[in-house]
Specification:
Helix content: 40-55%
Number of helices: 9
Distance between the termini: 19 Å
Structural class: alpha+beta
GO biological process, one term: cellular response to phosphate starvation
CATH architecture of the largest domain: 2-Layer Sandwich
GO molecular function, one term: phosphoprotein phosphatase activity
Protein name: histidine kinase
Pfam families: HATPase_c, HisKA
Organism: Gloeothece verrucosa (strain PCC 7822) (Cyanothece sp. (strain PCC 7822))
Length: 362
């Protein structure tokens, strides 16, 4: 079987539509409990405004003016714990229920329902479970857009820096080569050192420019096992020097449409970091599983873990845990994953070490 198969290409993946997700959650609730109206009011961070999503069920009708009233004039500041359903009286012979989700800048996100009957505790618990699921998805939605805005700012900055530095570096490189050729062989050592420095600067500049490029994905069906194996092979010298064990599920097929070279770069960077921060003889584990419409990939190591500052800045441009590092590797990794329509995050393991997790659409 081919590990890299041709497939239909597209310029990008789209996120699962947030409204479609809410539609499914509300529909499930309407089938479980006798609600006739459901409303989510939340702070839409990307748009920097309050937003709402409302649905009617069982031929119930409500005007946009009434929805606006429910989404703007309720006193929701002191109505109990998050994810706890509260009964708030009646509205046109329907029973009002409220469930706070979270609070940002003293503004509460919440769910609001109208029910045909008084809900049992079991039915309230069903709402509370759905509320937690909605909040988790809402958090992902907000984080994705926040990361996307940060990436756009980075692209603009680096595009400008790249143009300003590339021409001077080319000129310096040419002048250094002319200087080397004009010197006797015994005097060329310092110039060679200068040229190596220029080469490193050029490589760093290329990394910067990689960060700023718009996604031009060349998608093809690939088996992750093949990509991981190739990534590990390219790192064999440092794997052997630290005697680390790098394991992945060789019997677990995972064929998805990705840009092969870019995803290989993702694995190469994450493995390189894991090896660098692992103790001699340490174990690095890579695993994946399919969940709904995405694949979830994890890479864990047995290093010292991430400090609170690391966790906060791990994907920030120019932030590096390695002495002499450019601080761009994980920024590029994040951009590649987001260009594919996925997400990436890092966390510490309870027993020590670090886990990087990223998702890719199926």
């Amino acid at each position: 079987m081919n590990h890299r198969l041709s497939g239909e290409t597209t310029s990008h993946f789209k996120l699962v539509n947030f409204n479609f997700f809410l539609e499914l959650q509300f529909k499930q609730l309407s089938e479980e409990i006798p609600i006739v109206f459901a409303l989510l009011v939340y702070q839409d961070c990307p748009k920097k405004s309050t937003a709402f999503f409302a649905r009617e069920f069982h031929s119930f009708e409500i005007s946009s003016e009434e929805i606006s009233l429910f989404s703007s004039e309720l006193d929701v500041q002191n109505l109990g714990a998050f994810f706890k359903v509260t009964q708030m009286g009646e509205y046109e012979s329907k029973y009002i229920y409220f469930c706070p989700l979270s609070q940002k800048n003293f503004i509460t996100d919440y769910l609001f329902f109208l029910s045909e009957t008084i809900l049992s505790r079991t039915e309230e618990e069903s709402i509370e479970i759905h509320a937690q699921i909605i909040q988790e998805y809402l958090n992902l939605y907000q984080v994705y857009h926040q990361q996307n805005e940060e990436i756009k700012s980075l692209e603009h900055l680096i595009h400008k820096i790249g143009h300003e530095l590339r021409n001077p570096l080319s000129l310096i490189s040419l002048m250094a080569e002319n200087l080397r050729l004009s010197l006797a062989e015994s005097q060329q050592k310092q110039v060679v050192s200068l040229q190596e420095t220029i080469t490193n600067l050029n490589q760093n500049l290329n990394q910067l420019i990689d960060c700023s490029k718009r996604a031009r994905l060349k998608l093809e069906l690939c088996d992750l096992r093949y990509i991981v194996r190739k990534s590990i092979q390219s790192l064999n010298p440092i794997v052997e020097s630290k005697a680390v064990s790098l394991q992945y599920p060789q019997d677990k097929e995972a064929i998805i449409a990705v840009d092969y070279l870019q995803i290989q770069q993702v694995f190469g960077n994450l493995f390189s970091n894991a090896i660098y921060f692992s103790p001699v003889g340490g174990k690095i584990l890579c695993n994946w599983q399919f969940f709904q419409k995405e694949i979830i990939v994890t890479i864990t190591d047995q290093g010292q873990g991430l400090s609170p500052q690391d966790l906060k800045n791990i994907f920030t441009p120019f932030y590096s845990r390695r002495p002499g590092g450019t601080g761009l590797g994980l920024t590029i990794v994040q951009k590649i994953i987001m260009d594919h329509g996925g997400r990436i995050w890092a966390e510490n393991l309870v027993l020590g070490g670090t886990k990087f997790t990223f998702t890719l659409p199926r």
